[in-house]
Amino acid sequence: MEVSPRLRGVKVLVLGSGAREHALVRALAADPDVTELYAAPGNAGIDAQASVRPCDLTDPLAPAALARELGVDLVVFGPEGPLVLGAADHVREAGIATFGPGREAARLEGSKAFAKEIMAAAGVPTAMAHVCDDLDEVEVAFDQFGAPYVVKDDGLAAGKGVVVTDDRVVALDHARECLSKPGGRIVVEDFLDGPEVSLFCLSDGEHVVALQPAQDFKRVFDGDLGPNTGGMGAYSPLPWAPDGLVEDIVARVVQPTVDELARRGTPFVGVVYAGLALTSRGLRVIEFNARFGDPETQVVLARLRTPLAHVLFAAATGSLRDLEDLRWNDAAAVTVVVAAENYPGAPVTGRPIGGLDAAGEVEGAVVLHAGTAYGEHHEVLSTGGRVLSVVGVGADLGDARERAYEALDHLTLEGSHYRSDIALAAELGEVQLP
Ligand code: AMP
Ligand code: GLY
């Protein structure tokens, strides 16, 4: 069924500059309905597939101005920053179909305390939590929940605001640091056991369409050691997931959340990213994000067969109910992030990246760019913490892993590091449900 005849010959603008946006751009470039594809600010990899424009994403008015200037039909927001600032409201006010929630609905990600309030109102299962404004409250919460201690910065922190530790001194230090920021507030949570799942659900404000679930690797080192990062790798599908998991998450988590936001008059249009733990006491929400996840998007889109523009346009224009069932390929996808020296601390940037062509020639592998830019002589330089996201697609997770790591072997970036165990436990059938 056609969503809308207007979609023929659609002009799309993708905002952002990570590997998530490179994956979105690749999928949109492959969609025959997309006649013009722009990205802002983009990166060296995105530049090969879309017309890249500058855009200051810290200015909430900039995306709308650029979208108007380019005359696009659809704007797709990648990162959370502009959403939380209300940039999607301005694009929508300009009469352009917008994939991304307005400022109020984006608080689902922008404030963990707000997310807890919505979940309580909607009856969504999540970790017990205390919102704390000072260290005395933190101590009381620690006493109540016991170790391991889970301390979260209330505001946006690029995936790095959370500390989970058995060491009370470390947990208190993190709490102190977050509270010392202007308006600093933290959330202390009950520890959730069990494997984590990321599920992206498209929402047009009312209806919800789930994509395939993925798993992300947050810690920087193999064996889930070291500090949290924005994400070091991901895979999909999840061979260990219980039957009916996606339906269960939609029914118990995402649809009630979307309903609650609509009831408040702030409908959520875009993608609800539910980060969940499958605990011994059932599924629990760890966090919501108001955007596609990075690096999970890289593996989820590698498996989607339905042309993407059509799907995002349906979400942006209130027509998800009329969308046909999404089609997926049977393949497995694994992505491994190449991170700069010292990431997730302040990364070393400006270094040349070698082997991109050879890596891209490995069958079933694609190198997506994150923090990259062209240097003076058209060489590709690193510009951020997460530099590349190498995706392998194969018949099963083992095959996909092999292709990703084979491609990775061709890449050179001084001081860089990556995890060698992405999807390994799942391939070996060692992911345990509690
Ligand atoms: P968040 O930014 O809330 O997704 O947290 C980042 C990571 O910290 C999650 O992916 C989990 O690995 C871990 N985490 C967060 N909250 C909890 C919790 N309540 N119990 C156990 N681990 C958690
Ligand atoms: N993969 C974690 C995130 O996108 O926040």
Widest sheet, order of strands: 3-2-1-4-5
> What's the CATH class of the largest domain, please?
Alpha Beta
Overall tally of domains: 4
How far apart the termini lie comes to 42 Å
Summing up helix and strand content along with how strands pair, one would put the structural category as alpha+beta
Helix content: 25-40%
Oligomer: single chain
As a percent range, the share of strand residues is 25-35%
Q: What's the main sheet like?
A: 5 strands, parallel
Q: How many helices does DSSP assign?
A: 14
CATH topology of the largest domain: D-amino Acid Aminotransferase, Chain A, domain 1
Rg to the nearest angstrom? 21 Å
Task: Please identify, by name, the CATH architecture of the largest domain.
Answer: 2-Layer Sandwich
Model description:
The protein is an alpha+beta fold. The protein folds into four domains: 10-99, 3-Layer(aba) Sandwich (Rossmann fold); 130-189, ATP-grasp fold, A domain (Dna Ligase, domain 1), CATH 3.30.1490; 194-322, 2-Layer Sandwich (D-amino Acid Aminotransferase, Chain A, domain 1), CATH 3.30.470; 332-427, Alpha-Beta Complex (Glycinamide Ribonucleotide Synthetase, Chain A, domain 4), CATH 3.90.600.10. Helices cover 30% and strands 26% of the residues. It has helices at 19-29, 62-70, 80-84, 87-93, 103-110, 112-122, 135-145, 168-179, 245-263, 296-303, 308-316, 356-360, 397-409, 424-427, and strands at 10-16, 34-41, 51-52, 74-77, 97-99, 129-132, 149-153, 162-165, 186-189, 196-204, 208-210, 215-216, 219-221, 225-228, 233-236, 269-279, 282-289, 332-339, 365-369, 372-374, 380-382, 386-394. The strands form six sheets. It has a five-stranded parallel beta sheet, sandwiched between helices. Helix 1 links the parallel strand 1 and strand 2 (34-41). The protein is globular, with a radius of gyration of 21 Å. Mean pLDDT is 95; it is low at 1-6. Residues 159, 216, 230-231, 289, 293-294, 296 line the site of glycine.
